[in-house]
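User: For my dataset I need records formatted as: sequence, then structure tokens, nothing else. Please produce one.
Assistant:
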Amino acid sequence: MSKFKVSCLQLNAGPEIAPNLEVIGDLTRRAVDAGVELIAMPENCAMLEPRRAKLLEKVEPQESHHALAALQALAAETGAWLLVGSLAVKLSADKVANRSFLLDPTGGIVASYDKLHMFDVTLPSGETYRESSTFQPGDRSVVAPTPWGKLGMTVCYDLRFPALYRALAEAGAQMLSVPSAFTRTTGQAHWHILLRARAIETGCFVIAPAQTGDHAEGRKTFGHSLIVDPWGVVLADGGEAVGFITADIDLARVAEVRAMVPSLIHGRPIPKPEIA
């Protein structure tokens, strides 16, 4: 059971849920028809709403989340495993979780993970993001079971924190999911490099579905959904178009690469730096 076919959906999500779910449904069914068993969606897959006030009006708690219910039904309909990159989930009147879900072929929730690291940055382009003003960061890391092996779950800005990925690999992850809505500015500079580095450092497959194109309120995302092997080889790149990419995965490659460069077992406690 170490071999399977995976796809990343590449989306151009808008601020209304229904049209996004329609695109997700179409792409998912096409991927399943092509023999795909695990389908991964990007961050904010059902709604990319940049306006804080509007987002807070639209979000729903997990137990009554219409988009989550629709995606659970899609998993049951298609018989595929779905990695719901992330949904905005209401926690309180002014706080939201950026929550990723792994769904089994019955639509059951196998695992969920709340994005740990908040994207609070001001870029040279003048773009400003303050995720922490709306989103509540998670407080745990997650390794989830699949029929093929273990999946370490992360979201977007987490990608810049390599200690998280090493911890997931040391906890048994053979695959890492990085659903994202990377900005065009940072994506052009860092996306490919960071994803290949996380794969190489951990000896894991990296599955990174992405948002692409121009969105509401001037938001621009980079695209280039990637599937990367444990040696850092890019198996598939989504470019800039809406659609999906596919790759054949053999998790036996993980053990092979880790045997060649066993850095996961060579780690040592890091002494506190001396200030000269």
